[in-house]
Amino acid sequence: MALGKMRIKFLGADRQVTGSCHYLETNGLRLIVDCGLFQEREYLSRNWEPFVFDPAGLDFVLLTHAHLDHSGLLPKLVREGFQGRILATAVTKALLPVVLQDSAHLQEEDAAFKKKRHAREGRRGPYPEVPLYTVEDALAVPSFVQDVPYRSRLDLNDRLSLTFHDAGHILGSAMAELRFKGATAEERLIFSGDVGQWDKPIVRNPSVFDRADYIVLESTYGDSRHHDPKHLEDILCDVIGQTVQEGGNVVVPTFALERAQEMLFHLSRLTAAQRLPHVTTFLDSPMAAQVTEIFERYLDFMDLQTQALFRSGHHPFRFPGLHLVQTVEESKTINSIKGSCIILAGSGMCTGGRIKHHLARNISRPESVIVFVGYQARGTLGRQIIEGQPTVRIHGQYYPVRAKVVQIQGLSAHADQQDLLRWLRYLRAEPRAIFLTHGDQDKAEALAGLVAKELGWRTRIPSYLEEVELNGTT
Q: How do the domains of the chain map onto residue ranges?
């Protein structure tokens, strides 16, 4: 490839949400931005396919954050020969072992469970009855990770540099700004990663830019607006209060990373203000407990308000009535409790983990409520529930959905349509190209229409495996 040119290949989260991965070649370097796990049912087979590049030939992985749809194939990448460096923020470096080892445990457990069930049923499933990767594979990843501070320019070679900026999505999340020497001048390519909302607790506001030549921008909520954050706690109060009054349980599928901590933050505030009935809350996720402890070690990455809470002695993740559940035996005892309780458990999209057991116990109870506080990818159990499927399959059995279902979008760690437009408005001029990724096609198309209408700018929605050369004329 000629000096001054960059080639980008879109390898995931293209016209869908998960599996984020972008392959770049420029000025003698080969790198990828993120290496995520596909989680939509219709794309799961991609996790098993060989990488379209040679892992041993990569120089760098630029990791925007630790969520599995951005990091979840790193154990496979390392196992298949990667020997370069994984660049991430210090918080992401600390979180990554917890996230990947938990994923590997689930991969191993799921493979063993399916093998046993398929043998009992005398059939084979669509995927191999072996784990995608093992705990041993996951343990090999951290030795390749190098932490990079925010706003610190790192030269990857003499013609390409990287700067991470706070994305405001989860603690330690980053936007990746790449500066490369073009044919006549330095050019800037910005990967937004997952953009956060403004004025959210715990995390800082997303970084903004006044100039970019090329942008790869997420579009997860490109067609919708979140609930007004001022009303989030009112909604939680109403849902919890009514459910306790009716004698049901509040079951919250919770992402262990960020969403669990944000839920604890709001429940802590509501408890301190005496706005909730006396009810026990279970955080049934050893991983979420580990993540919370890591958050507490990185106060400097939090917003100023949350730092002030810690330093004043008002712990924002602890409150009376909260129980951190560790063992499987402790998890099982939750089902024998008389009366109502709040259960926060993973996984956030109901694709595995302890939440499935709690759903099996509660989804057919009209007095209980399932509260969704995060995005549910197509084909996942969570999406089936929020779309109103009358029955759902959990652990090989079908259950009628009689519980109430509530979706609170304002708790999302993603920017909504107006936030994404606000982020773009900080640019002083139209970029040469804006690529919309990390969103279902209808979401990306809605955002593209809004950008054209409000800013008069063109956008592109790349397809899976599409390749583009950035040379100033894109």
A: 6-224+413-470, 229-411
Which whole number is the average pLDDT over 190-214?
Answer: 96
Q: Provide the residue count of the chain.
A: 474
CB neighbours of residue 85 within 10 Å: 17
Q: Which fold has domain 229-411?
A: Rossmann fold (3.40.50)
What are the structure tokens assigned to 404, written together?
A: 């109430």
β-pairing, 174-181 vs 250-253, is unpaired
| This model's pTM is above 0.85 | yes
pLDDT at position 5 over 90: no
Percent of the chain with pLDDT strictly greater than 70: 96
The pLDDT tens digits of the residues spanning 21-40 come to 999 999 889 999 999 999 99
pLDDT for 76 equals 98
What band does 274 get if pLDDT is binned at 50, 70 and 90?
very high
Answer yes or no: are the C-beta atoms of 59 and 86 closer than 8 Å: no
Tokens 């995060």, residue? 374
Distance CA 450, CA 223 (A): 9
Q: How many CB atoms lie within 10 A of CB 336?
A: 6
Burial class (CB in 10 A: 0-12, 13-18, 19+), 455: middle
Using DSSP's 3-state secondary structure scheme, residue 216 falls into: strand
Amino acid at position 19, single letter: G
Residue 277: both structure tokens together? 């009935």
Query: What is the CATH number assigned to the segment(s) 6-224+413-470?
Result: 3.60.15.10
